[in-house]
Amino acid sequence: MTKKFYKSEKFQAWFFPIIYFLLAVSIVITGCFIFKKKYYQPIVVNGHSMWPTLTGGGTITGANYQLRNHYGLADISKNSVYSLHRFDVVVTYYPQGWGGTNDYKIKRVWGFPGETIQMTYDLETHVYTFTAQKMGSPKYVLTSTQKEYEQTFEAYYYEGGKTKFVNKTLKYTVNEFVLPNKTFRTSHHVPGGDTSDTRVFHKALANDEYFVMGDNWQGSTDSFGNITNPNKLTANELQGRVISLNAYVTFNSGTGENTDMHEFAPRYEF
């Protein structure tokens, strides 16, 4: 009787479609997992090193408002690493650590393998001039404009046991670099810190070495180092290129948890 039921058209009419459906779902889930692990990775910005481009938490000076962290997506395929353009924003990882930590860091690419790069600063005009040249190639030159910048961002605070959100505005001086397809700004401003630092350098990069900096020149751990810790960055430490950050999240650095997801319209496309 049981064998006849298994072979009946009624049993086969519902049993096999369910099996095929579960198989298709498992294939899709497995494919998405592999695709995510190999090609794309969600990221959360934590810290001040990419200010003012990216918000990574912290307390606003003279207020109880907390900055919220940007989160988004990075292309971690090897093709993204080997097809980088100058001033792309990248995710790096140092097994030996920067600043005594072993973690992922988001930076901007300034120099490529085999180049000689230099940054100068004019005390009278307050202009930074960046140059890069590789033997046999034309010299690349980019200058900045110092300007007052007003930034609006989202902050949060607690009231009556609830998390509330508010738009805040902060004014400070930035170095603005204008490219044909985008503009980015660097700042010495650290929320709660001073703004007096300047950055100049002259460096010849090895044939496997990249030079990266955070946009917050005073508050960034990057390719600057010392004799014992030169912070050499190779393609192996480049995890991928940041492709979008378009929302905020409240990030608890103590527990590593993301809470209070609060969607915004896309703001940054890299």
Notable characteristics:
about 15% helix; flat; alpha+beta; about 270 residues; 4-stranded antiparallel beta sheet; 15 strands; 7-stranded antiparallel beta sheet
Given helix and strand content, the structural type is alpha+beta
Question: Got a strand count?
Answer: 15
CATH superfamily of the largest domain: Umud Fragment, subunit A
The name of the CATH architecture of the largest domain is Ribbon
Uncertain regions spanning at least 5 consecutive residues: none
User: Strand percentage, roughly?
Assistant: 35-45%
CATH level-1 class of the largest domain: Mainly Beta
Oligomeric state of this protein: single chain
Q: What is the approximate shape?
A: flat
Give a quick account of the main beta sheet: strands, pairing sense, barrel closure.
7 strands, antiparallel
Portion in helices: 10-25%
Total helical elements? 3
Secondary-structure element string: HHEEEHEEEEEEEEEEEE
Radius of gyration: 24 Å
Mean pLDDT: 77
Count of folded domains = 2
CATH topology of the largest domain: Umud Fragment, subunit A
Instruction: State the separation between the terminal residues, measured CA to CA.
Output: 65 Å
At a glance:
The protein is of the alpha+beta class and 270 residues long. It contains 3 helices and 15 strands. A hairpin with a 4-residue loop joins strand 6 and strand 7 (127-133).
